[in-house]
Design a protein that fits this description.
heterodimer, A: alpha/beta, Aspartate Aminotransferase, domain 2, Aspartate Aminotransferase, domain 1, three-stranded antiparallel sheet, 16 helices, B: three-stranded antiparallel sheet, binds pyridoxal-5'-phosphate
Chain lengths: 499, 131
């Protein structure tokens, strides 16, 4: 047993270890008042269920204690770059729990769920408005699935035209990792484009690569370096001139709300990460929601079903009738039922709460906060692309005069100061990258405390490097041996009696 | 002393692989710079022995606790052996990238390709530039 496992067990045992054989409550079942039917056949009966035998109080305490060991946005600052860990307003939890939404069954007749359909329809319209696009599907269950939908639409578009020479997708090296993965999954060859010294796409490399075999380009805006490519219109023109389509990874829309409409820039298709930009909770990696919006070219191919008005209101007082429709040449369904509906309610609530001006203010503040952090960290850390950034900033977690210290050590030490670490070692094109995304939620006071901690750590790196190398010291579990964990995989779930 | 080893008997790619001729065969691995940038390597995908690949084509992927990286052929040719000791001990690539950490042996199909690769001096400079 490693030290870490021992530590974890001392903090909170597994629920099976709390089990006491034979512990049970008085049954609350009413007395049987109907004739007893034949018991289940013997081969379907089990002697034991391998369930922990614990009281309700044991269960409550176990999970509350576990949750207290966890770190969450509701506990502290969470500058995890590329994840937009902003505050999730509690009103979203209230609306998602309204019985009219929470108790719906996805198979009930649309006539009996008009309120939910109206919400979905409105959200489709709002996302079109925000992105400057013509059509929207709320189907994708996460950003990466939205990307796949987008690339499959691009493929369907070319195939419909009999244009089968197009086998490549261009992807800058500053793209999110899901972009090349999506292109490969859709059957395309990925051509990686280098970045220039300012962090933008190298236009000469783009011109050389953009030929008639290119189906399209996927570009993350702002990129994973946190910078907005000033040549974006030129990039779009180069690809369009060769007949390729433009995909925008819009997961970083927190920098652009009310400021840039991708459809107006010329993008053909994009996705949103509602769980990032529109603040639906995703601390455990989900649930996600990755709607796609498209311009006229791709309208017929949207994944479905989408919500449409199937009958206009008969008078000015009345409501229209909403229904589900499958777009004419749809690439099909992406998942069962209708996206992650609870997330749609929360995102709708968030947009309604802020309105157009409020959304714009969100992006302004997110960008302001990131730039404040950038400027104030630049005297202690190398900022490789030290210019106006978007919603996040990347710095190097290394010092020429403290050669043993790596980004990981800085992150671990930050935990001692009570902060969640930034994203480590991403983007890949920056040495010892630390990607910091403060979001608009945080006050100047919080940002100042974080910046001071970062400065203190930079001093410690020179004066007491061991403090960093052995961090964290104040968390429930100390430094985890990541190399051991990655090399010695335990991929089975063992129930206690099987031991 | 330079930060990374760059043995003079190897030739180098821009994507940080090295190739060293041993008789008619080329031994191939990743450089000291590459292993340092990746940090602790935890897995290497066994390449297909017998595969014929062109220079620049991917022959394997390595994973570290930081990232995954594709390995590309420095030369065109047939893969004739894989250093299978790496499957159990990928850390050999970190410890000795030019020795025990070698990855594949290749029968090159065009030796003139060697000339297009960087020599030790040029590669050392290329590493310094990237920092
Ligand atoms: C820029 C970017 N693109 C795509 C994704 C993928 O989204 P998801 O994790 O919902 O699949 C993310 C995730 O954070 C992202 O930051």
């Amino acid at each position: 047993m490693t030290t870490q496992t021992a530590q974890a067990k001392a903090l909170e045992p597994l629920i099976y270890e709390l089990s006491s054989s034979g512990r049970k409550a008085e049954t609350l079942m009413p007395k049987l008042d109907v004739p007893e039917s034949a018991p289940l056949p013997a081969h379907l009966l089990r002697d034991s269920l391998e369930l922990p035998e614990v009281s309700e109080l044991d269960v409550v305490r176990h999970f509350v204690r576990l949750s207290q060991l966890n770190y969450a946005i509701d506990k502290g600052f969470y500058p995890l770059g590329s994840c937009t860990m902003k505050y999730n307003p509690k009103i979203g939890e209230d609306t998602a729990r309204l019985p009219g939404f929470a108790n719906l069954h996805p198979l009930q007749a649309p006539e009996t769920a008009q309120g939910a359909l109206a919400l979905m329809y409105t959200l489709q319209q709002w996302l079109c408005e925000i992105s400057g696009m013509k059509g929207c599907s709320l189907q994708p269950a996460a950003g990466a699935q939205g990307e796949l939908a987008g690339i499959l639409m691009i493929r369907a578009y070319h195939q419909e035209r009999g244009d089968t020479r197009r086998t490549k997708i261009l992807v800058p090296d500053s793209a999110h990792g899901t972009n090349p993965a999506t292109s490969a999954m859709a059957g395309y060859t990925v051509v990686t484009l280098p970045s220039d010294a300012r962090g933008g796409v190298d236009l000469d490399a783009l011109r050389a690569a953009a030929d008639e075999t290119v189906a399209g380009m996927m570009i993350t805006v702002p990129s994973t370096l946190g910078v907005f490519d000033e040549n974006i219109q030129e990039i779009i023109k180069i690809v369009h001139n060769r007949g390729g389509l433009m995909y925008m990874d819009g997961a970083n829309m927190n920098a652009l709300l009310g400021v840039v409409k991708p459809g107006e820039l010329g993008f053909d298709v994009m996705h949103f990460n509602l769980h990032k930009t529109f603040s639906t909770p995703h601390g455990g990696g989900g649930p996600g929601s990755g709607p796609v919006t498209v311009n006229e070219k791709l309208l017929p191919y949207l994944p479905g079903p989408i919500v449409a008005i199937v009958e206009e209101a008969t008078d000015s007082e009345g409501a229209p009738r909403y229904g589900f429709v499958m777009p004419e040449k749809s690439i099909g369904r992406l998942k069962a039922f209708h996206g992650n509906f609870g997330m749609l309610v929360r995102a709708y609530t968030y947009i309604a709460l802020h309105g157009a001006e409020g959304l714009k203010a969100i992006s302004h503040h997110a960008v302001l906060n990131a730039n404040y952090v950038r400027v104030r960290l630049a005297d202690a850390y190398k900022v490789p692309y030290n210019r106006m950034c978007g919603h996040e900033v990347v710095i190097e977690g290394r010092f020429p005069d403290a050669p043993d210290i790596r980004a990981l050590d800085i992150s671990k030490r930050l935990m001692d100061y009570g902060f969640h670490p930034p994203t480590n070692y991403f983007p890949l094109i920056v040495h010892e990258a630390l990607l910091i995304e403060p979001t608009e939620s945080e006050s100047k006071e919080t940002l100042d405390r974080f910046i001071e901690a970062m400065h203190a750590i930079a001093r410690e790196a020179r004066e007491a490097p061991e403090l960093l190398r052995s961090a964290p010291h104040t968390t429930p579990v100390s430094r985890v041996d990541e190399v051991y964990a990655a090399r010695n995989l335990t991929l089975c779930c063992r129930l206690p009696s099987a031991e | 002393m330079a930060k990374w080893k760059t043995p003079a008997d190897c030739r180098y790619t821009k994507t940080d692989e090295w190739a060293r001729m041993e008789g008619a065969e080329a031994v191939i691995g990743i450089t000291d710079y590459a292993q340092d940038a990746l940090s602790d390597i935890v897995y290497i995908e066994p390449p297909t022995v017998g595969a014929r690949l062109k220079a620049g084509e991917r022959f394997s992927t390595v994973e570290s606790t930081k990232a995954a990286a594709d390995l590309n052929m420095p030369l065109s040719g047939e893969i004739i052996a894989f250093n299978s000791a790496l499957s159990d001990a990928p850390e050999k690539i970190n410890a000795d990238p030019f020795g025990e950490g070698w990855i594949i042996r290749v029968k090159p199909s065009d030796l003139t390709e060697l000339e297009a690769l960087m020599d030790a001096e040029a590669y050392a400079k290329y590493c310094e530039e990237r920092g």
